[in-house]
Amino acid sequence: MLATLLQALVSGLAIGGVYALLALSFSITFTTTRTLNFAQGEFIGVGAFLGVTLLYLLAPGEGGSFSALAPVAAEGGRYPVAAAAAGAALGALGLLLFLAAIRPFAGKPGMSWVMSTIGFGIILQSLGLAVWGPAPVNMPSPFGDGVIRLGGAGVRPQEVAVLVVAVLLMLALDITLRRTRLGKAMRAVAHDPAVAALMGIPVTAIMLGAFALSSALAGLGGVLVAPIASASLFMGMGIALKAFSGAILGGLDNPRGCIFGGFALGLLESGVALWQAQWREIAVFLIIILVLAIRPNGIFGRRALDKV
Amino acid sequence: MLEVVDASVAYGPIEAVSGLSIRVEPGQVVAIVGANGAGKTTLMKAIAGILPLAAGRILLEGRDITAMPAHRRVAAGLALSPEGRQVFPDQSVRDNLELGAWCRDLRPAALEAAIEEQYALFPRLRERRDQMAVTLSGGEQQMLAIARALMARPRVLLLDEPSLGLAPLVIREIFAIIRGLRARGITVLLVEQMANLALGIADHAYVLETGRVTLSGSGAALLQHPQVRAAYLGAGH
Ligand SMILES: Nc1ncnc2c1ncn2[C@@H]1O[C@H](COP(=O)(O)OP(=O)(O)OP(=O)(O)O)[C@@H](O)[C@H]1O
Ligand SMILES: [Mg+2]
Questions:
Q1: How far apart are CA B185 and CA A47, in angstroms?
Q2: Ligand 1 proximity of B51 Cβ (cutoff 6 Å)
Q3: Per the CB < 8 Å rule, is B91 touching A184?
């Protein structure tokens, strides 16, 4: 019993870490531009596939076929290289998304940016399907398929790695936002772009940076989760939706609230699954709706979302 | 120093500033007075570059900055302390000041020295350095807004209603600081509803009505002008 509980805790924290990271990615664009990237799910899937492709290319011959890469393909520092490269590539894609789908519509009345980012995602997914096909593929973990025994519970090393990486990244982001010149400027833009411009802050550049960062997190997130599930162009939808729910739950305008919301959702999900797997989604979303009925701006949120 | 030539600014179909021209000479304090809705804030925002001109030009030291984006105007020497203070509420007093110097890209030691300069000018801010700006009193927030603008080392400081919502004693303090700035050679363009105070320190002043300049002259001359006395200083005093 204790072992199962521990196992659920680790799984919940690992997936919660991914939700938290992506919840933060939603918060970053929302606070600085009052818009969201509704293609974030597709970005996750494309990030994962870019990661798999890089592992395949970096380990010619020894890694096996593309759709079933051998564990050796992820070894020798190739996995972190693939993760960083996927993050960078998606970051660059985020710049394109901002210029093509956000910039023309941001700050104007109406919600055209919702449609334009969804459209961007659909185009991206279609391109991905043309290149990689619809079948999910296996992404090996750099730590192998083995299981660590922890007080009777079997824990997958990739889950621990995901949790550690997510926590480190979020700590780095939190410190950046609070302590660095750039972070302070981002928060100034988040408060009021016109007043930020009065400080001499290049507001458009900051917004571009926010989209690059947010998209890079999606790409990285895809490479992090793929070894736990498998890489698929459709894998991101569920993750992005949960991450978004986590952000709403914690408060979209509060980065720390988003981190809390992401972890809460991950733990809730694996906790409910322990009890009744088929009730998982229902219970999770019922709880979210209940919390939002009491605190419409999220647990730690300030601004109402209806301003978008 | 700063020149606005035939400037018009519109919100949609409504023109808030129409064909307006003003001049600010180096080292002067120039005041703009006018009733609510006269277009004073609109003019200041257009000079700072956060509202576009529908027509006309803005020159800073002879250079045309009409098309220059707002953030570059700060580096060019214009800093606005906006109406209603607009300090960053969730950042500390110190960090607000740091943001004011964004365009100077100072090394840590130089930044601390620049912040110290403002603390020397506004000792109250030193006491509150680590407090979030939202927790400051109105007067302290106004001081922070002015200090933050000064952090950019502007050649022309734009002040929009620094007395708004403040107690008389605090207003006197703020005006003493503006006099001090002039003594240090900083050029100031001041928008004020407290016409008597503004005209009292202004080398030159303009009266704005519905987006147009209706009167101009030295501060002392406008203080005596019957039309100004009737409209802005309370007739019969
Ligand atoms: N964002 C806006 N949209 C539409 N009209 C505006 C906007 N801001 C100001 N106006 C209008 O433009 C005119 C000038 O406004 P402005 O704020 O410049 O006046 P002001 O002289 O600064 O007044 P106050 O002394 O009250 O600060 C007013 O008629 C106002 O209603
Ligand atoms: Mg005004």
A1: 57
A2: no
A3: yes
Provide long-range contacts, Cβ within 8 A and 24+ apart, for B127-135.
B128/B93, B129/B92, B129/B93, B129/B94, B130/B92, B130/B93, B130/B94, B131/B92, B131/B93, B132/B89, B132/B90, B132/B91, B132/B92, B133/B87, B133/B88, B133/B89, B133/B90, B133/B91, B133/B92, B133/B93, B133/B96, B134/B87, B134/B89, B134/B90
Cβ–Cβ gap A199/B89 under 8 Å: no
Residues of B with CB below 8 A from A187's CB? 88, 90-91
Ligand 1 in reach of B40 Cβ (< 6 A): yes
> Whose Cα sits closest to atom 11 in ligand 1?
B16
Dihedral sign, Cα of residue B68, residue B70, residue B72, residue B75:
positive
Model pLDDT for residues B26-69, shown as the tens digit of each residue: 999 999 999 899 999 999 999 999 999 999 999 999 999 999 99
Q: What is the pLDDT of residues A159-213, one digit of tens each?
A: 999 999 999 999 999 999 999 999 999 999 999 999 999 999 999 999 999 999 9
Q: B36: Cβ below 6 Å to ligand 1?
A: yes
Establish, for the pair of chains A and B, how many residue pairs have beta carbons separated by less than 8 Å.
58
Amino acid identity for residue B95 in this structure:
D
Distance A184 CA to ligand 1 centre (A): 30
Q: Tell me the C-alpha distance between A243 and B93, whole Å.
A: 34
Closest partner residue to B80 (CB to CB) among A184, A198, A202 is A198
Distance in angstroms (rounded) separating the CA atoms of residues B131 and B75: 28
Cα B175 to middle of ligand 2, angstroms:
18
How do the residues of chain B divide into helix, strand and coil, expressed in percent and rounded to 5?
40, 25, 30
**Scanning the structure block, which residue is given the tokens 């989209």?**
A211
Among 3.65.10.10, 1.10.10.10, 3.40.50.800, 3.40.50.300, what is the CATH number of B2-88+154-233? 3.40.50.300
Pairwise CB contact (< 8 Å): B102 & A201: yes
Task: Report domain extents, chain B.
Answer: 2-88+154-233
User: Average of pLDDT values for A216-224?
Assistant: 96
Q: Whose CA is nearest to atom 6 of ligand 1?
A: B11
**Ligand sitting nearest the alpha carbon of B16:** 1
What's the pTM value of the predicted model, to 2 decimals? 0.90
